[in-house]
Every structure is written in structure tokens, then in C-alpha cells.
Amino acid sequence: MFAQLSRSGVKTAFVDTAQISLCYPVPECGTHHIRARNLAAMWPNFRRQGVRCLVLAGFVDTPGEVREYTALLPGATLTLCRLRVDRAELKERFLARGWRPDLVEEAVAEAEALDRSDYADVCMDTDGLTVPEAARLVRELAGGWPCSLPADVNRQSHPPAPQIDLSASVLWFSGATAVGKSTVGYEVFTQVLRTGVRAAYVDVKQIGALRPAADDDAAGHRLKARNLAAIWAGYRAVGARCLIVSGEADSDDTVRGYAELLPGTAITVCRLHARPATPAERVAQRGRGGGPAVPGDEVKGLGSAALHRVAERAAREAKALDRAGAGDLRVDTDGRSVREVAAEVQVRSGNWPSNCTTCQPPGQ
């Protein structure tokens, strides 16, 4: 839906709620509270960029959970669409992910419970539909969404983004396309969690999905920086002590743009590097559907010629980053497991986050 709307010229944003609640151990307030709070904090930043509508993906199981979001977005009109599929197709899709097959019956039971509910505005069966077909049908069922929005929605004014004192520690993973930024970053995140420290993880690409892009912010760094500051403030409010970030940091100026909205925060940029053959192999794997399922992955499903062009671009990016000497640390990923790379990053960054005086487990 995000792709279809933006191609038609409607300025649209996309958020996957799972990407704005990666903070563990889960605080007592619960996952939906974190997601709703972070979404509400990001919403003015999207509106400031002229966004007309937001496509939101995520689970809600009860009317009470829906109200957690609507209570924090009083000026927004929410249309809730529940997608469903028959039992056999659901099992097939779940198992095809290759992740936690032991949970398939739990997923089926959840789907059956949702079939007994009636709180969604629209319910649509996705059996036998391609993704583009499903998206078009949803819009039709929702009355041609978002055509019913008032024409002056883009002209509302918003206060400037708050400058928040977030004194804490941030470890940022950067590098060329397909070098492993999110994979290694998430591995470090999981390792930190095992120490008992409440930590958070953000992929900046997932918090700046906006099309068409703003003329004065083509790469979206200004929007991403504002949203990162907003989300990190929410995580800090529930006790997070350190933040792992993955995303583009192609120059010192780019990093400074984020740092300006995170005053008092120590940012360590770790640039991952690999020989051209390694990203090319990973690009090909992603094109075949391999690797983690990341919303908006523009490599997945591309033909061989397009994948070759992406790999060539990744090689050029890596050379440019090397020439610029970008990042505080440079770590090679060739021929090494994710855990091996993560372990080197931890050691070379001063056993991060233990070098941060505020990054101690609760009660210590």
C-alpha cells in the first residue's frame, strides 16, 4: 500500500510497529504502550514533512489495545484493517519463514480468536491474492483510502522538534549496502540483553519510510534523526540505558546531524567493511528471499541484472567510505560469523556498553 500510494503522488509514510518497540527486557507498561508512545512522538515529524497518510503494520488483539494508540493520536483518523487467511495457508506461510515452527499452532489459535472478534473496520481474506492485489482491495474496502482526507491536512503547523537530554551511550553500525549492519547490530543488541541491561535497537531505515521524499531532505536523514530522538526519549523513559543503531552514516556531517538532536549522548560509529565479493553474495541471497524479513527490502525479488547493479553500487560505497575514513572503528566481516564480528566490536569499543557509567542493570 505504501508503494502504491507513493507512486500515485500521495505523500505517505510507513511504520512497522515491531520496529519501534525493540526494547528489552519489556517494561512493565507493556509493548503496546511503548509502540503507541513512540508512534505518537514520530507523527508530528512525519506531518512536518507534509505526510498525508500513514500505513501502519502490526498486531492488535483487542479494542483496548487499539485505544492505546488512538488515545495518543487524537487528531488522526484511524482505519483498522484485519487481514486473515485460512488455516492451511496460514500454516504454510508461517512454516515458510523457517523461524520457531513450534509456534505454528499458537499462531493458528490466535487467528481463530481474531476471527471471532468484530473490532476491525475492515476484514479481508488474503487467500490466493498477490500482495499488490491485496493492497488494492484493502483500499477499495476502506472507501478508496485515503481519498476522504481533508485537502488542508498538509498545511497544519507543528512545533519544532524538542531538544532532549538523553545522556547515554549509542553504538552505531554503518557501512555499504549488504555489509551486515542490521545483522551484526542486532547480534550485539541480543548480547547486551543477556547482561541484564535494558537496551534498545533501531534500524534508522525503518523509522524514515516516506515517499515522495522531501525536496530538502532527499536522503531522509533529518526526518530519521528527529524520529530517532523521539523514539530514544521513549525508551529512556522506560529505563533503557543504551541504544544500538544500524543505518547509513556515510560522513561525519551525517553523524553530526543525528548527534545534534541527541545532546549529551556518546555516539560510537562502527563501520563494517567487506571485500566486493562478500556483499555481492549477500545481495544475491537477499534477492532470493534469504536473510531476515525486513519491511521494505528493495533487494528482495530483483532479477539478476538488477542485483548485479546493487552489488556494484555496494562496492563503490565501500571504497568511498574507506577513502573518507568514516567511522570510529573499522571492522572487517569477510569470512567471519556474525558472533565473531560482534565480539570484536564489543572488545574494540571498550567492551561496550560497560564503558558507559549509566549502563548498569536495574538496581545496580
Structure, explained:
With 364 residues, this protein is of the alpha/beta class. It folds into two domains: 2-152, P-loop containing nucleotide triphosphate hydrolases (Rossmann fold); 169-348, 3-Layer(aba) Sandwich (Rossmann fold), CATH 3.40.50.300. The protein is built from twelve helices and eleven strands. It has helices at residues 2-7, 31-48, 63-70, 87-96, 104-115, 131-141, 181-194, 221-237, 252-259, 277-287, 304-324, 338-348; strands at residues 12-16, 23-24, 53-57, 81-84, 122-125, 169-175, 199-203, 209-211, 242-246, 266-273, 329-332. Residues 149-167 and 357-364 have low confidence and may be disordered.
Summarize the structure.
The chain is α/β, with parallel strands linked by helices. The protein has helices at residues 2-7, 31-48, 63-70, 87-96, 104-115, 131-141, 181-194, 221-237, 252-259, 277-287, 304-324, 338-348, and strands at 12-16, 23-24, 53-57, 81-84, 122-125, 169-175, 199-203, 209-211, 242-246, 266-273, 329-332.
Low-confidence stretches: 149-167, 357-364
Q: CATH superfamily name of the largest domain?
A: P-loop containing nucleotide triphosphate hydrolases
> What's the total number of strands?
11
Terminal Cα separation, in Å? 46 Å
Reading side by side through the largest sheet, how are the strands ordered? 2-7-9-6-10-11
What is the CATH architecture assignment of the largest domain? 3-Layer(aba) Sandwich
Whole-number average pLDDT? Answer: 85
Count of helical regions: 12
Number of domains: 2
Based on secondary structure, the structural category is alpha/beta
Order of helices and strands: HEEHEHEHHEHEHEEHEHEHHEH
Percentage of residues in DSSP E strands? 5-15%
